[in-house]
Design a protein that fits this description.
alpha+beta; 6-stranded mixed beta sheet
Length: 347
Amino acid sequence: MTHPSPALPATRPARRRPSVAWSVLALLMVLPVAGVSMFRAIPVEWPLIVVQLLSFTPWMVVPALVALVLALAGRRLWVVITTAALLAAQLFWLFPLDAGKEQGLPAGTASVPVEVMSLNSEYGEADAASIVRLVRENGIQLLTLQEHTQGFEDRLQSEGLDQLLPNRLSEPSDDASGGAVYSVFPLEAVGLLPDTPFRMDVTRVLITNAGAGTTATLNLTNVHALPPVDERIGQWRSDLDKVARQASRPGSQLLVGDYNATYDHSEFRALLDTAIAGQDGRKLVDVGTAFGGRFSPTWPMEGPPLPGIVIDHMVTSPRISSSDYSVHQIPGSDHAAIMARLVIPAG
């Protein structure tokens, strides 16, 4: 009689050891992310190279995500935690909780809607027909232009812009400092921000809603800040400070155009933190950021294939509500047009 042999003890599968190679690759990938994150997190007046580097902060989410995947493959806990923390920081900056929330108006408060568009025309080389088509198709009622030239104005007129937006305040120039405002509403020149190389005109717009019988006054600033290049970085900071001072004035403020700054620049975020007269301490609203437009670049639309960044902004007082924010490429310009529907409190 045979007896069954005793069962052999089950063998455990060998544990896979953490991979040094994957972890090293993860750390190499996340190293530039850590450097940019340090500059982004500390709001000081960084030197020129850092200011320019910060413009591309949103794209750091890509290497941060790849680094986390590599860290998970490497299975070293401290590397996983490090890469996850840096990815979390990028996501927080991409969708910031402090982007600026509109205050809104109490129920029943009278208001007037207006469709707004802005474009840097790149020395007046933007395609006039495309601009007029966008104005017509989107019912644009208020258009601001930077780098406005006389030749560009003539082409816009020949394409019929004056028929759509008959009111115009224009200061054309061939050296990038020109600007213009076109509108269906009456325009009144108020002044000019002082000591800025590019014109930044302030215009009072009397907006009416004939159907509802309501009117609203909008203080419009056509923004064109100097770019932060070489020794002119000080002027760039000064330009943004001038815009912030204008924003702090009473009334409904719209400050729209080419800021040559992104939300990742502390100088731009300081502008949004401007104390607004009569607004209960609420901050300004960057409409594009508030609508999740951090990956809807406005520059460069032509030239070398650089990662796009958002340097054109529509900034409003907190009592102005907004919707339908969008970005549109225009042939001939290195900037995209931005547009949105704003609702201005009556008065």
